[in-house]
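Appendix B. Chain record.
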Amino acid sequence: MVSVNDYGAHCHWMGQALELADRAGAAGEVPVGAVIVDAQGRCLATGENRRERDCDPTAHAEILALRQAGQALGNWHLNGCSLYVTLEPCPMCSGAIIQARLQLLVYGADDPKTGTIRTVANIPDSPFSFHRLTVLGGILESACRQQLQTWFTQRR
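Structure tokens predicted for this chain:
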């Protein structure tokens, strides 16, 4: 697993997630990207928002990456894996992250409207969470926030 203290690795993988978010934004999706890294520090899966393109309300970057990672491992238990995502996960994604038993969640920007990791709610540390998830927020926060703000400004 990538160490919680390995800032260089966190920046690298969040940079990859930002590139995926760019692709999503260019396709008319809210620019959110996700990368899952396995216990050996290798990229296992990626995802970018695809709700509009797939006409699927569950096609969030995190959900797509979780599905791909499960297929790659042949197991829905993602023990030892780390998820990098540019925006704090929503309730649906937070629940799926807990279900997948990820080791580490690293996110860029807080989501003041629907963030359920630390901002609006705290699903990982709640009494009904059966899995203890290590969380690291704020990695490349300014770049993640700027990407979202620019995208929304261009559409208003």
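Further analysis of this model is presented in Appendix C.
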